[in-house]
Amino acid sequence: MKYSLPTRFSLISPQLFRIRGQRVREQGIIRQPTWILLPRMQSIAMALLLSSSAAVYLALLRLDAVNGIWPVALFLSAMAALFLLYALAIRVVSHSSAAATWKWVMAGALLFRLILIPAGLPARSGDKAALLAKDLAGSAVTYERFLLFDNDIWRYLWDGHATASGVNPYRFAPADEAVDRVAEGSVVWSEIRENVSFPTVPTIYPALGQMVFRFSHWLAPGSVAAMKMVLVAFDLVAAVFLALTLRATGQNPALAVVYAWNPLVVKVFAGSGHVDAVAVACLAAMGYFLAKARPGFAGVCLGLAVLAKLSPLVLLPFFWRRAGWRATVVVFGVVGLGYAPFAGAGPGLVAGLLTFGKFWQFNAGPYELFRRMGSLVLPLHSPVSPEVAAKTVCGLLFALVLWRVWRRESPSTAMANEVAPVLGWLLLLSPTAMPWYLTWALPAAVVARQWVWVWWTATVCLSFLVMIDGRERWFILAAEYGILLAVWWSRNLVGKGLEEKRRTS
Amino acid sequence: MNKLALLFVALMIPVAAVAQGSGSVTPSTGTVGPGGGDPFEVTKTIKLTVVEVRANGTIAVKDETGQAVVVKVEKSVSISAEKGTELAGQKKMKIDRLEPGMVIRATYRVSDNIVVAIRILKVKKVA
Asked: Of A108, A240, A483, B55, whose CA is between 20 and 30 Å from A191?
C-alpha cells in the first residue's frame, strides 16, 4: 500500500511517509514499523509542551540571577526542565506530520522569545510593564547590569550610541576621555557606559554588528528591550531559513524545532541579547541559498555572516569549492563594503579582537587540557608559554579537522555537512567557548543531523556554574566535555556499529 | 572522524592525572579577561543620597524611599563625578571627598553588598 499525500502535506518528503507506520522493503532492508502520532494527539502533545515550557520561561523571569549557589542552581534546574521538554518536543515532531506541528513550532519559538525579552528587569519588581516602557522611551536604565548572567548588551548599546555620535568604536574604547562628551550630561548614557565590561578595550564586534547596534539605536536609543527585539528578529529569521532549508533538502521542516525551541538559543538571544543571532541568521540563509543553487545570494549571506562574526571565515575554502570563485569574490566584496565606513580606525579595527585573542579564556576543553599539560611538561623559564603551546596544538588539530572534512565531504552533499563540524570543532578547540557561540553551528547541525552539537548546547549550560563565585572548576569542564564525548562515542562508534550489525542481519 | 574521536579520548586521559592535583596546577582554570577584572561578578547599581562619611570605610546613606542604611565601601573603590559637579574631572578620589547631601549612584557587589564604584550625580539635595 502506498501512502498518498494530501496536498497540504506537500511540505514533507513523501519518503518520510512511506517508511512510517508500515512495513516496507527498501534497498534490501526491512524496516520495522515505527510509531506515529495521530494528528489530534500531535497538537495536544505540542500544546502541552509549549505551555509547560512557557511556564518555565515565566519562572525564569522571577529569578534574581546573581552570584551564589542558589540562583545558579535554580537557573540550571530551569534549563534542565526546558531541555527535557525540548527533547520531548523533538520526539513528537519527528514522529508527526509537518503540517500538524509546524504552527506549534513557530508559535513556541515566538512565545518563548517574547517571554524572555523582559529578562534582566529587577526580578522582584511588580510593575515590569512600567519599567519596560521607561526602557523603550530611553528615559532611564531599568534593566539590571546582568541579564540572566550575561552583560554584553551594554557594549552593543554603547557602540550604537558612539557611532550615532560620530565616534568610531574601533578607535575609542568606552573609557577613553576623548568620548566623555558622548556620555556626559545624560544619566542614561553615563550609566550604560559604566555597565560596559572591559571599558578600556575598543569594540571587538565586526561591522555588521555595528550597523545592527546603530539600527537599534535609531529605533530606541539606550533601550535594552529594543536591542533584544532586533536580535530576536534575526534569531527568528534563522529559524525560518532553517525550516526552508530542511524543506529544500527533502526533510521535515518542522525539525526546525531543534533550533527554534532550543533553550540555550532562547536564553542567549531573547534572555541576554547576543549579537551572534545576526551571524546565525546569515549562515542559515547561506545554507538555504546553496540548497537552492543560488551561489551569488549565498556569497552575500556568507559575507554578511563574516561581518557579523569573523569565525565563518574558516568556511571560505569549502564555500569556494561549492559556489565557485565568483561567489567567493562576492564574499570579499561584501566584507570590504561593510568595513568601509569604519576604515578610519586603521589598525584599531582589529585591536579589540587581538586583545580578546590574547587574554580571554573561558570554558575551554582540549585547550585547557593542553595548557595544563604544558605547564607540567615545559620548564619554568621555557621560551614557549603553556598558552602558546596549547594554542599551537589546537591549531594543528583544527587544521587536521579541516583536512578531514575537506576529504570526506564533496560538493554533492549539503554544505551543512561541512559547516557543522568545522564551526563545531573550531569552538571545541578554542580557548574561549562562550555558550552563545554554540548557536553558530546549530542550524547546520540540524540539516546535517549531527546531533552531538545539539547535545553540546545542553552540556554547555554547566559552564554557568562559574557564576556561583566567578571560578571555573576542572570537574565542571570534565563533566561538560566528558558527557559530550560520551554522546559522540555512542553515536559515532557504538551507534554506527549497531546500524551496521542491523544492516548485515 | 572516528580516529579523531579516539585521539580525543587518548588526550583526555591525562585530565585524570591533572585532576588529582598532581603538579603545580591550581584548581582554578585561569579564566581571564583584560584588565584583570572579574567578568563574572554580578553587580547592581542604586541611587543613594550620602548622609555621613565615616572613618572606617563605610558611608551612611539613604535610598530613594528615605530608608537609611550603612554601606561598606571597598578600599579600591572607583569614584567619579559627573560633569557639572564640583568634583568633575578629578582622578583617584577617596571616599573622604564625599559630602553629606551628595546624590550618588553606587555600584555594589551582590555577593557581599560592598560598594565597588561610586558616581557623583549632578543633582544635589540637602540631607
From this structure: B55
To 5 degrees, how large is the angle CA A394–CA A395–CA A399?
Answer: 115
DSSP string, A199-210: TTSPP---HHHH
What DSSP designation does A3 have?
A: P
Tell me whether B13 touches chain A (CB under 8 Å).
Answer: no
For residues A71 and A65, is the Cβ–Cβ distance under 8 A? yes
Cα nearest neighbour of A491 on chain B: B2
Residue partners of B17: CB distance under 8 A and separation at least 6 = none
Alpha-carbon span B97 to A343, nearest angstrom: 43
- Which of A432, A451, A469, A474 to substitute to test the interface with B, most B CBs within 10 Å? A474
Any A CB within 8 A of B34 CB: yes
By Cβ distance, the residue of B22, B30, B41 closest to A67 is: B41
Could you say which of B12, B23, B34 has the minimum Cβ distance to residue A198? B34
DSSP state of B13: H
A70 at B interface, C-beta within 8 A: no
Rounded CA separation A427/A362 (Å): 11
Interface touch B2/A492, C-beta < 8 Å: yes
Q: B31 to chain A, minimum CA–CA distance in Å?
A: 5
Whether A271 and A60 have beta carbons less than 8 Å apart is answered as yes
- Establish if A124 touches chain B: CB-CB under 8 angstroms: no
Check: complex ipTM more than 0.85: no
Whether the Cβ atoms of residue A423 and residue A441 lie closer than 8 Å to each other: yes
A262 DSSP assignment: -
Distance separating alpha carbons of residues A241 and A247, to the nearest angstrom: 10
- Give A166: exposed, middle or buried? Use CB within 10 Å, 0-12, 13-18, 19+: exposed
CB-based contact, B5 to chain A, within 8 Å: yes
Residue reference for cell 508527526: A96
What chain B residue is nearest to A192 in terms of C-alpha separation? B45
Flag whether residue A354 sits within 8 Å of chain B, measured between CB atoms.
Answer: no
Per-residue pLDDT of chain A in tens (505 residues, 90 and over written 9): 333 333 333 333 334 334 444 434 344 333 444 556 677 788 899 999 999 999 999 999 999 999 999 999 999 999 999 999 999 999 999 888 777 788 999 999 999 999 999 999 998 877 889 999 999 999 989 999 999 999 999 999 999 999 999 999 999 999 888 888 888 778 889 889 988 988 888 999 999 999 999 999 999 999 999 999 999 999 999 999 999 999 999 999 999 999 999 999 999 999 999 999 999 999 999 999 999 999 999 999 999 999 999 999 999 999 999 999 999 999 999 999 999 999 888 888 888 888 887 888 899 999 999 999 998 888 877 888 889 999 999 999 999 999 999 998 777 778 999 999 999 999 999 999 999 999 999 999 999 999 999 999 999 999 999 999 888 898 999 999 999 999 888 877 665 666 676 667 6
SS (H, E, C) A316-337: HHHHHHHHHHHHHHHHHHHHHH
Burial class (CB in 10 A: 0-12, 13-18, 19+), A498: exposed
